[in-house]
Design goal:
homotetramer, 466 residues, alpha+beta, 6-stranded antiparallel sheet, 18 helices, 24% strand, magnesium (chains A, B, C, D)
């Protein structure tokens, strides 16, 4: 955020809108000429921290950036407050703060090299490499140092940075993670999603392009650079399926509408006779609406979500611990009883939740349960910033679709095909395996950037044939 | 809860399921022979308090009751922890704890009398009268003292109480507030709604009847008494419209399905040409589904709710404070643009939120906005336990339907009729004004119990003609 | 405190000065015409609670009282916040708050009677009986109700109370516990000790007399009443020895000087050849100074107290737990080595600390250790408000002086005699066993008020012969 | 601490004993093979943090170091948790943590150079330079890197460091700050003072010498190195006067006894007729005892310190704020009245407290007040780790002794002479101005290490003549 009074307020609101991208912790850095750089980092939700007058007063200035943390690679043990971004570094020409969305696949190697040269890391976060690379760059200003640093970084990165006078945004050459530009009054905003622009009343200007760096200042407005070798973009298709908020706009279309369209495609690909189409709330809701509209089978809220559920409910006894998902979800027993139910969910990862939900539905007296999944089988881990379990823990990595159906114990189980998914996101001809338009590694095993560190730790890529 | 190991766990889970009935504070009392009565009362959500091993260990025993507080009558200033139920009293024959759902309309009078006789009140809660009346009863056991006390109480009350060995439940003679009985293993549960039975895996046995008292003990099971003059029941119709959870069962039917049916009736009573039917989330969702199904106009999530919104976000600047509902809701701009939108909400109370939502929708480029409200105009305050503003602040108390439409600035505004609402809850012939089956005072001004204290403070009943 | 702006500030300062009388918790009640009665009660030290602008702003008014809690009789388990005084009651003629210093010896009996009549106790504190007795009195104003109530109470009590317009102070007929009156500007203060008058800059006017009640208002100043049968006073001699602060004035003399004089008497009664007189800090310091001055043996700080020691240091391992007093005290090894040391302490209760201190001194290389104790052997528990262990745990209840010497393992052990103590507090002729001037039950077993409740629980008085 | 089970317990106890050297914050780092390095840093007292099982369990290992922070140079604004030592760095050959007691006088210059080379500072602490210098050293092991780093550092430093297997201690060439070695069981301890050895039951082995580095491991025991050019030591004389705890041993003698001896010298140099010798508690106590013993004037506790005073008491009103020291100290009015009082304090820095104490004493009715100060006039700031105000704020920098006496408004004021102080610490011939045995810059202005950074900021040394 740059060019507005009390930028920290705007940053806090934007982070609140992006809370779904990370709930563990959040941080904000601001700068104003009188107080220099100010910083606040806290565990927990934005609304529980960056709210009180008391904290916000410690963050003065017309320029600021922030970050919400979603634990991905990095910390083996518990996250410590020093792992929370933005990271700050004082350079000879002044300070800079950076916030990184994504994941660096050669971080082990970079860290080793930097330590050998005498850098001292303060966090367990891979993203800290970027600020050390910048500190060691021979370039004379911060945007140039940032280019220098990011050319050494492999992986997925949408980075937002700030100096005393400039706001900087960069997307990696493939544009795996999103980054958008907005305008509010005389100020400018950078954000992962458009829903953060909406909350601050900013107008959505455009997406930052893959491989683009923008340097924004009140004097010069938005200057665009292309510091990397040009490559064809590979945006993360999982942002459409799951990660982005349904009210954000990706590729010119509402994410909600894309998800509804996935439901439509799924109804075409995998129809079944039934009485009700019920979403697994809230993630399956848009696809269930689409499925119902395409199939003509009535949509119904067969499962109700407890809106007061947080992550802190600790079940005290064994007896209760086994209730599992019941704390979060309850079946609408009177509605479900005796019905053939199509359950629509966004994905099956480990399969444990799906299994429990199926049991709840059958306990409540449903006649049949049919699962319809709004994404292809998740068979490969993501190394670009989405937190997925190791390959062995992914149900689809070890079972065929029929084995999964039997494991989940449902009457039928169908996933949308990769081609169906591409059609739903607007690629009418489906996926071109030679030049796919998206990063779909979690479904296909086709990783557009080689996961160097993970391979060094023993991860094996799919056979080329696959 | 009685007759289960670690009753406090069951009570906590049940309160969590009932959190929508009160978010300000919660309390649990238990008893076991070794430690006697134990109590914990906390501000905030159940999941943030009654969770840690540390607190739950302080609540041993096979019998327990709890309460979640929703500030109604009583405290003028800030609630203090001593206002949080259950209330406890030590009597000559042993202690008892009570939790009261509802509101006492002659509490001022009772309190004055009790103080004159030398009782010392510890809270500002009207419900404390009950325990003092019990302390002063001449009867020799607690259930008899409770009958004695409740015969002096006017208003709406579903009361749950416990002694060292018994669980007691009572509904007032009109049965205004709900109370249900469940069975889990060898134990028994009393709860305001069936969703609390579901979460603990209890089987729904039956509703406690209006004017009934049940006394439950492991030895004698459920004993039923009728301590009051028999009257025809007047259950709160607003529980169907708004207060109860959609997955609870009232009168044999899922609340969700009743609300969907309200949408169906509303589509019949107030059709309009449009492109989309959108709920105001989450309260308008079931009625919007029903409206869409009856009208054939597609259902769509035009407004998205931020699931990380709590009540604690303090907007720090004037500029941001005015954003109001944007912190909680965002419009799906790409979806709404250029469309004629039917917005379905559950009620219009003050009208301020409705107005802001309409503005958001129009800002996002909607062509027309039509409001459809799943309840009749709320023109009278509730004195029986639902927190409503004073009469002057109710939009429908001062404006006609057309004035409200103009005030909200929408193309059309329609409320379901009182007859339509009765039909939706299953009274095929609509409302019989002579012997209405429900308490519908908030819509009709027809108060089944005279609000004594409020009338002493100047409240005027409607003319009989109305 | 009455008659000053922001009385709560004065009360907080006074409680801070009286912190040695109770560290567990503190409370303040104030009244002003606009806000009525306000109250704040907190666990922990005054300085950690009644300090912030935020809390003090909640306590407006020109009249207020407070209390610091020292757990005595009453709570069997952990103290709860509702046990913290002042206690408040709303009566038909307005509210009153009371704070009680001392202990009621017939509380069991009073509580039983009050519960039978329908009073509901909120705390486990015996002092709550007083406010219930007041609530049930037939008298028409609060001072009269208070007289009525206190005539039923047996034991030791200095009570401070407030109504909307009056400050009230009462001492029991024997005047066991202290209570003093001070004047600051146009206002009046009541306090247990004069050190609380000093801190608020108040002038010490006089002690409230045994059996006296004062009712203070801005209009009428100090009115004095004598509601009880006149009796000869028996002030607690232990206040001189241990309980009061050394800078307070009791009976016209500084407590410090009395304690120094005890040291002088002790040196006369129990001389010994040695190199150094060392106090056990800080309680033995004044007597050690007196002993040194009378004996001519140099005074030295052989034991140093860690001034950062609180009660919260939890030793984490067994190994360290055994270090015991070392966390609080350290020996000045270089000073003590090879010396014959006289250790002066105020009292020996259980003997455990004395034993550890002796070991520390010998470990550090002292040649001999001589204990001199500035009070007679503590052989009887106090039932009048000083927290002492049960009789069986008092070392002097089960051992002769020589047995104690041998148990502590020191070269010599001498206590001041009861006559010597009386001389030090100014009774030149020593103690008259027929009409002793002080309550010295902890030393003599001569209880001036029969401990009714404790006797019902099995406590046996000394034989009259003793 | 090295070579003991659960080293963190020992470190915590040691820090507790050293709490007088820094109360703002504390930190502990430990290492064990399984968990690697563990760290905890907290604001506040040791006893309030490093106590709970919960925190201590996070600090496993047989080797550990700690630090208590006393804000000296460095942070201009509020201290942040990242400013709290020990500092940790991961090097190619493994990690190291360091804790620094003292002050670096060329830190500005070092920091500038390190930033230019690409180091990123995380704190505002000068001490962080040491770990960055170590990170950039070309040496192949940590002790060598430490020598390398410390040779670039100017100023006063006693540094304790740890690697995975070694404990390291270093004193600067002048030995300005203390550092002692102890032995407990099979383990070794390093500490600023012997009182920290006492609390863990360790035996005092010897002082680390000026310019010495010891490297301690279970295998090789204590290895000694001399990495610096040999210089004649200049130990801080203020440690004797004020900084060290009275029960510590410095130069073979108890600090208490040295201070008592200062009082003796002061009585010889500056006698006066009076009735009582009273210490300003607690800092003036030992010197007052010495003064009394030498002069024969009785010692008395004329001023009583409130032992519950912390630094957190916030006086809420202007009226009360002016009471100042009264919250902490109270005069023993009954004792002081009409007496000629000699007040003994350890030092006069700004003079504000001395003035208030004098007023309290006169208010209480003292006939005369004579100040005797157990150190020479403090006329120069310390740049070697004692927190003193800027020169302009030191009373003795701007006033003669007679001007100070008049300013304080006392009958007489005398400081001990520098020669007298040297005699008291054991240099019978007094101070040799050519080769003084101590650093006495705060009294003499003779700085043994040029304060480079401060001179760059404008500080002027005394004329050589002085």
């Amino acid at each position: 955020m740059i060019g507005v009074a009390d930028a920290a307020n705007f940053v806090a609101l934007g982070l609140h809108a992006l809370q779904h991208r990370g709930q563990e912790a959040g941080g904000i850095v601001t700068h104003d000429p009188e107080h220099g750089f100010s910083s606040a980092r806290r565990f927990g939700l934005v609304r529980d921290n960056f709210t009180s007058q008391k904290i916000m007063e410690t963050l003065p200035g017309a320029i600021g950036i922030g970050h919400v943390r979603y634990s991905t690679a990095g910390s083996k043990g518990a996250t410590q407050i020093r792992d929370v971004q933005p990271f700050f570094g004082e350079f000879a020409m002044g300070g800079a703060a950076i916030a990184h969305n994504g994941n660096i696949v050669n971080a082990d190697e970079l860290r080793r090299e930097l330590i050998e040269r005498g850098s001292i890391f303060q966090s367990s976060s891979d993203s800290e490499c970027i600020i050390h690379l910048m500190a060691r760059s021979l370039q004379r200003n911060i945007p140039e140092r940032m280019k220098d640093a990011l050319r050494r970084v492999e992986g997925a990165f949408s980075v937002v940075a700030m100096t005393r006078t400039k706001l900087i945004g960069v997307r990696d050459p493939l544009g795996v993670r999103p980054l958008v530009l907005g305008r509010v009054g005389d100020g400018w905003a950078l954000s992962s999603e458009t829903c953060a622009l909406d909350i601050i009343g900013a107008e959505f200007v455009r997406e930052i392009e893959p491989g683009e760096m923008v340097v924004i200042s009140p004097e010069n407005g938005v200057e665009s650079f292309k510091p990397f070798e040009p490559r064809r973009g590979r945006f993360c298709i999982f942002e459409h399926v799951y990660f982005s908020r349904p009210d954000s706009i990706l590729g010119g279309r509402s994410v909600y509408d894309t998800r509804r369209q996935i439901g439509v495609e799924l109804a075409r690909e995998a129809p079944v006779e039934a009485d009700l189409v019920c979403p697994v709330p809230d993630s399956g809701t848009p696809a269930a609406i689409g499925y119902s509209q395409e199939s003509g089978i009535p949509y119904a809220m067969g499962i109700i979500r407890n809106q007061y559920m947080g992550r802190t409910f600790i079940e005290p006894t064994e007896q209760i611990r086994n209730m599992g998902v019941r704390l979060k979800l309850n079946v609408n027993r009177a509605l479900i009883k005796g019905k053939r139910v199509i359950l629509v969910d966004d994905s099956v990862v480990r399969g444990t939740t799906s299994r429990k939900i199926k049991e709840m539905i059958l306990d409540a007296g449903a006649a049949e349960v049919h699962f319809r999944i709004a994404s292809p089988p998740t068979a490969w881990p993501c190394f670009y910033g989405v937190d997925t379990p190791e390959r062995e823990k992914l149900l689809a990595a070890t079972m065929s679709e029929e084995e999964m159906r039997s494991h989940l114990g449902v009457a039928s189980l169908r996933f949308i095909t990769l081609d169906g998914l591409y059609r739903a996101v607007g690629v009418a001809e489906g996926r071109d395996p030679k030049t796919p338009r998206y990063c779909d590694a979690c479904f296909s095993g086709d990783y557009p950037v080689k996961p160097t560190d993970m391979m060094a730790r023993g991860f094996e890529l799919a056979e080329p044939a696959e």
